[in-house]
Amino acid sequence: MANETTSTASNGSGLDPKVSSLLSWILGGTIIVPLILAVIEKDKFAKFNAWESLIWTIASTVVVFVIYTIISFVTFGIGGLCFPILFVPFLGNIYGAVKAYNGEMWKIPTIGDFAEQLASK
Question: How far apart, in whole angstroms, are the C-alpha atoms of residue 119 and residue 39?
Answer without folding.
Answer: 9
